[in-house]
Amino acid sequence: MPRLTPTPSYSPAHRFASQRLQTPWLLFNIVFSSGNVSACPQVLNKRCVDAAVMTGLALSCTINRMSLFDRKHYFYADLPAGYQITQQRRPIAVDGTLTYCFLGGKKRSQVIRKTVNIKQIQLEQDSGKSLHDDLRSQTLIDLNRAGVGLMELVMEPDMSCGEEAAAAVRELQLILQALGTCQGNMSEGQLRVDANVSVHKPGEPLGIRAEVKNINSVRYLARAIDYEIQRQIDILQRGGTVQNETRAYDSKSGETVPMRDKEGLQDYRFMPEPNLPPLIVYEDNASLPTGIDACQAVVVETIRKVLPELPSVKRDRLVQTYGILPEHSFTLVNEDGLVDYFEAVLKVTKMGPRKVIGWVIKELLGHLKQQDMSVSQSPISPSALAELLELQETGHISSSVAGQVFQEMWKSSGKTALQIVQELDLGLVSDTAQLHSICQKVVDSNPDEVRVNAIRNGNKKVLNKLMGLVQKETKGRADPVLVRAILQEKTLLKSDC
Amino acid sequence: MPYFPKFMVISNPRPLPLTSHLFLTGVISRAQPLRQSAHGFLNRCPITDSAVRRGSPKQTWQRAGAAHRAKVAVNLKGCHISTVDMLSLTIREVSSALREGRISPTELCRKCLNRIKKTQHLNAYITVTEELALKQAQEAETRLLQGAPRGPLDGIPFAVKDNFCTENIKTTCASRMLKDYTPPYNATVVQKLLDQGAVLMGKTNMDEFAMGSGSIDGAFGPVRNPWSYAAPYREQTEAAPDSDWVVTGGSSGGSAAAVASLTSYLALGSDTGGSTRNPGALCGVVALKPTYGLLSRHGLIPLVNSMDVPGIMTRSVGDAATVLGILQGLDVRDSTTVPAPSSPTELPEDFDVKNICVGIPKEYHAPGLSEETVVQWSRVADMFERAGARVEQVSLPHTQHSIVCYHVLCHAEVASNMARFDGLEYGHRSAVDSSTAAMYASTRHEGFNDVVRGRILSGNYFLLKQNYEHYVEKAQKVRRLIADDFKRVFSSGVDVLLTPTTLTDAARYSDFTQEDNRTRSAQEDIFTQPVNMAGLPAVSVPTALSRQGLPIGLQLIGPALQDKKLLSVAQWMEQRVGFPSINDYGDSSESRNNNGMTKREQTSAV
C-alpha cells in the first residue's frame, strides 16, 4: 500500500542532534505552511489538490466534492508541528480500481490481467526523515521534506503474491509518471510502499497482518512480500500465531525483521484541522459559485479533459495499431519515452512496425540498458534510426550491414547512416559483372559443393552455404537477390556440361 | 517567495469551522422581543437610574472628561501642547497634528519612549524597540516633510502584543519556552501597520501564551493597571499604590496598559475568549474584536485557531474603525480569512440610532455582576431608548454552557498547538539529554507554566479516542447552538446587543490571585467568550468610572461582518457616555515612587 511511513523506528536512547536552523524552514513548503512557531494558518497548494484529483480520476475513483482535513498527533522529532495534517474523516477520493497486467504462464508470454481496489486517496503532509547514527547514539533529522504534500493511496487486500503487488505498483508508477503527479522513484522516496501481509486458508477470513516497511524498489517489494508470506505460513504450520507488528525489509539478507516500535499503543488524538476549511472541488465551470475565479478553484471537468493517455490504453492501442506482440507493448510502455521514440521512427520510414519493434527493443533498448541510459539520452535519434532502416528497406544495405552501421552510429553520434555507409564503403554491391566474377571464384574453389548441388538439382542448403561464402568475400555487401540468381545460374549451368 | 502564490480558499467562507454534526434535539423557541418600559428588562437593577445620574463622584469625572476634550481643541489652535496632552490625543487628532507640523514624528516617538520609561512600573512592555522606533519615526518624518504621508497612521506610535511575530524582534508569548525566540517575519497585521508608516514602540506583556484573564500569568511578571495610579482610584480608596494596585485584565493586559498609560496610540491584542475586550474594559480603552476571519491570523502564535482574532485597542471608536479598515481583508496566508465588506473605515459622525434595535440578553444578568456595572448597563440602554432606538430583552439560552464548552475546545486545540514546542526546532531546550523522551518532558516542564501544562494535559485527555465523542464533539455541537442563538436574535430584527464586558471593575492583584487561573478565566470571560464561539464582532466601550475610580466598559455585539455598523453604534455611545481620559488626573502614573518596583517581578505562576 503506497503511503507515508508515519512512525519511524524509535529509540529512546537516541539523542537528537538536529541542526537547529536559524529560520523556520517551513515557510518554504510546497503544500502547507506550518510548523514554525506561529504556524497558525495553513494554506493549501492548488497544485497538490489538482494532482490528487487527477490521480483519483486516473484510478476511476469517486472524487469527493467536499473533503476534510484532520490533525494526527504524535511526538516525534521528524514532525515539527507535533501533528500531521491528513484526511482521516473524508479523503479527497474514494473507491477506485487499478488494473495491472503481468506476463505469466509457462513461457512467461501470457498476459495476465488483474484488478486491485483502491480504498481511498488522501492528501497529507510529509514528515521529516530520521537518520539513526548508532555509533554515536544520535538521531539526525532531515526536515527538508517535512510539510511537503503527499498522496496516500490505500489499496484493498486484493493481491496474493509478491509478483502481483510488484506489477500493481509498477503500473501505479507508470500511471503517476504519465500524469506527471509523481516521478515515482522508490529509491529516492518519491514513492514509498508499505506492504501489509497476512495469510489465511481459502474460505477463512483474513489472517493477522504484519506491516513491512523500508522497501525501496519494486523488485524488493516482491521479495519482501514473498518472504513474509512464507514466514507467516511457517509460523502457522508450526502452530504459532502471527504478530500484528511492523517489520523492516533488509535487502541484503532478503528477510523481514521486527522494527523497534514505539513504546505502547499510539492514540493519535485526531481532531479537525481548524486552519483549513473544508476543501470543495467543483464538477464543472457551470457549477462554480459566482465570485469564484475558475483559475483558483479545482474543477474536475477541466482536469478530466487534460488527462493524458494511461499506460493500459496505450498498450492496447500499440497492439491494435501496429500489430506488435503484447509483450512488446509492455516493454515499450515500461520504458519512459520509448513509445514516442518508436512512433517517431515509424513516421519517417517505410519499414513495417513489426520489423521496427525489433530494432527498437533489441538494438536500441539493448544498448541503452547495457550502458544504463534513458531513452532521452540515446545517441541515436529516432530520425537517424529511421534513416538507417530506410537504407535497409530500400535495398541499399543488407540487414547485417545495417547492424554494423548501428554500432558505428552509437559510437560516433552525429554521423548519419549514409555517411557511415559511404565512409566504410558498406553499400550493397549490385554490379552484375563484379558479382559474376566473385561468384565464379567461389564456385571454382568449391567444386564438391557445386557437384552436390548439381546432382540434387538445386540444393538450398548448398546454395546458402555458397551465398555465405560470397557475402564473406564481400563483407556482407553483396545484393543477396542478385547473388542467388547468379549462383543458381552458375551451378546449374555446370551440371549441364 | 516564501509561499506559493496560487493559493485558494476553496471552501465557502463560513467563518465558523464547526462540525456539520448538528445537535438537533430541543426546540429552540424564537426570541420574544418584549416591549419594555424604560428599565423594565433590568429587573434586578438595585440602583435607580436617576440616582446614578445625580451627583455621584463619577459624574464629576465624566464632566472632567468632556472639559478635557474642549481644552485640547483650544490648545490645538494655539501652538503649545503639553507632552501629556499630546500623548493623550486620539490617532485622528495626533495625525492631523503631525500633518500640520505641530509635532514631528521623531518628537512624538521620543515622548512616547520617555513615557514608557516613566511608566516602567506598569510592566506593560516585554521588549521596547527604541532604536527601531526612532528609525521608523525618522522615515515617517521624511515622508511628512515631503508632504507624502502614507496614510492616517504614518508616524503614529503603536504597540503589539508579544504573541504576534515581529521580524528580528523577540516574540516571547511571555513564556520561558520562547524567551529568546526571534521570528524571521512579521505577522500580516503587524506588516500592514508598518506598511502604513506606523512606528512600533515595542512588544507588550501578557499572560503566558495568552492563557489567562489577568495578565498576571506570564514569565515576565504581572501587568499593573495604569488606573491604579490615577487620582480617582487613589483618592477614593486611599490605596497604597505599591501594594494595592489593580490588574489590567487579560490576556492582552500589556497592550491595554500601553494605550491607557499614553505610551502608544494603538495596540494590537489577540482575542480568543475576551482577551482584548476584557483588559480594554478594565483599562478604559476601546477594544474591538472583529469578526472571525476579517483579520489575518498569519503570524499570530495560536491559542485556539477557530476562535483567535487579532484585536484592536485605541482611545476612540473612530480610531478603531480606521485601524480596522487598514487591517481587514483576505490574506493568502490564512485560509480562514474572508474578503472585507465594502470599504468602511470612516464612521458617520451623525449616526442615527432611531432606526436600530438594541437587544439586551437576559442571560447576561449573571451571578457576580456588580451593581455598578448593572447601573451603567441600564444607563446606556436608557440612552439608546431616549434617542429613539428600540431596546428589547432577548434570550441567548445556550450562553450558560459557553464556559464549559469553551474549556473543552480551547484545551483540545491548546494541546495540539503546543505540541510543536518540543525543544528541538526552536525555543527552550532542556539540558536533560538522557533520552529523547526525557528531553521532551523536561523541556516542556521547564518551558511552560502550570496553566499551559494543565491545559495541555486536559486537552489531550479530551482528544483521546475514547473521549473525543463525549467531550470535543459534544462541545462542538453546543458551540453550534450558541452560534445559532446569536443568529436567531440577529435575524429577528436586533441590530446590536448591549452587555457588560466584565462582571466588575478591575480587581486588586492581591484579591485576583486568591483564585486560580482556571476559575478566574471562567469568571472573567463569561460575557465575552460566547462571541468568540460564534465568530461575531464585538467592541468594549469605556463607559464610566466605578466608585473606586476604575473603568467600567460595556460591550456591543453585532452580526458577523457588520463591524462597521457595530462601530457606528459604539461611536454614538462613546460620544454620549463621557468617559474621562486618564490624563485628566494629571501625570500621577509617572510621579510615583519607583523604589524597587521598576524591575520586573517574577510571577509565582512560573
UniProtKB/TrEMBL annotation, chain A:
<dbReference type="GO" id="GO:0032543">
    <property type="term" value="P:mitochondrial translation"/>
</dbReference>
<dbReference type="GO" id="GO:0005524">
    <property type="term" value="F:ATP binding"/>
</dbReference>
<comment type="similarity">
    <text>Belongs to the GatB/GatE family. GatB subfamily.</text>
</comment>
<dbReference type="GO" id="GO:0070681">
    <property type="term" value="P:glutaminyl-tRNAGln biosynthesis via transamidation"/>
</dbReference>
<dbReference type="InterPro" id="IPR006075">
    <property type="entry name" value="Asn/Gln-tRNA_Trfase_suB/E_cat"/>
</dbReference>
<protein>
    <recommendedName>
        <fullName>Glutamyl-tRNA(Gln) amidotransferase subunit B, mitochondrial</fullName>
        <ecNumber>6.3.5.-</ecNumber>
    </recommendedName>
</protein>
<keyword id="KW-0547">Nucleotide-binding</keyword>
<comment type="subunit">
    <text>Subunit of the heterotrimeric GatCAB amidotransferase (AdT) complex, composed of A (QRSL1), B (GATB) and C (GATC) subunits.</text>
</comment>
<dbReference type="GO" id="GO:0030956">
    <property type="term" value="C:glutamyl-tRNA(Gln) amidotransferase complex"/>
</dbReference>
<keyword id="KW-0436">Ligase</keyword>
<dbReference type="InterPro" id="IPR023168">
    <property type="entry name" value="GatB_Yqey_C_2"/>
</dbReference>
<keyword id="KW-0496">Mitochondrion</keyword>
<comment type="function">
    <text>Allows the formation of correctly charged Gln-tRNA(Gln) through the transamidation of misacylated Glu-tRNA(Gln) in the mitochondria. The reaction takes place in the presence of glutamine and ATP through an activated gamma-phospho-Glu-tRNA(Gln).</text>
</comment>
<dbReference type="Pfam" id="PF02637">
    <property type="entry name" value="GatB_Yqey"/>
</dbReference>
<dbReference type="InterPro" id="IPR003789">
    <property type="entry name" value="Asn/Gln_tRNA_amidoTrase-B-like"/>
</dbReference>
<dbReference type="InterPro" id="IPR004413">
    <property type="entry name" value="GatB"/>
</dbReference>
<dbReference type="InterPro" id="IPR014746">
    <property type="entry name" value="Gln_synth/guanido_kin_cat_dom"/>
</dbReference>
<keyword id="KW-0648">Protein biosynthesis</keyword>
<feature type="domain" description="Asn/Gln amidotransferase">
    <location>
        <begin position="340"/>
        <end position="491"/>
    </location>
</feature>
<dbReference type="GO" id="GO:0050567">
    <property type="term" value="F:glutaminyl-tRNA synthase (glutamine-hydrolyzing) activity"/>
</dbReference>
<dbReference type="InterPro" id="IPR017959">
    <property type="entry name" value="Asn/Gln-tRNA_amidoTrfase_suB/E"/>
</dbReference>
<keyword id="KW-0067">ATP-binding</keyword>
TrEMBL record, chain B:
<keyword id="KW-0547">Nucleotide-binding</keyword>
<dbReference type="GO" id="GO:0070681">
    <property type="term" value="P:glutaminyl-tRNAGln biosynthesis via transamidation"/>
</dbReference>
<comment type="similarity">
    <text>Belongs to the amidase family. GatA subfamily.</text>
</comment>
<dbReference type="GO" id="GO:0032543">
    <property type="term" value="P:mitochondrial translation"/>
</dbReference>
<feature type="compositionally biased region" description="Polar residues">
    <location>
        <begin position="586"/>
        <end position="597"/>
    </location>
</feature>
<feature type="active site" description="Acyl-ester intermediate">
    <location>
        <position position="275"/>
    </location>
</feature>
<feature type="region of interest" description="Disordered">
    <location>
        <begin position="581"/>
        <end position="606"/>
    </location>
</feature>
<keyword id="KW-0067">ATP-binding</keyword>
<feature type="domain" description="Amidase">
    <location>
        <begin position="107"/>
        <end position="567"/>
    </location>
</feature>
<keyword id="KW-0436">Ligase</keyword>
<keyword id="KW-0496">Mitochondrion</keyword>
<dbReference type="GO" id="GO:0005739">
    <property type="term" value="C:mitochondrion"/>
</dbReference>
<comment type="subunit">
    <text>Subunit of the heterotrimeric GatCAB amidotransferase (AdT) complex, composed of A (QRSL1), B (GATB) and C (GATC) subunits.</text>
</comment>
<dbReference type="InterPro" id="IPR004412">
    <property type="entry name" value="GatA"/>
</dbReference>
<keyword id="KW-0648">Protein biosynthesis</keyword>
<protein>
    <recommendedName>
        <fullName>Glutamyl-tRNA(Gln) amidotransferase subunit A, mitochondrial</fullName>
        <ecNumber>6.3.5.7</ecNumber>
    </recommendedName>
</protein>
<dbReference type="InterPro" id="IPR000120">
    <property type="entry name" value="Amidase"/>
</dbReference>
<dbReference type="InterPro" id="IPR036928">
    <property type="entry name" value="AS_sf"/>
</dbReference>
<feature type="active site" description="Charge relay system">
    <location>
        <position position="161"/>
    </location>
</feature>
<dbReference type="Pfam" id="PF01425">
    <property type="entry name" value="Amidase"/>
</dbReference>
<dbReference type="GO" id="GO:0030956">
    <property type="term" value="C:glutamyl-tRNA(Gln) amidotransferase complex"/>
</dbReference>
<feature type="active site" description="Charge relay system">
    <location>
        <position position="251"/>
    </location>
</feature>
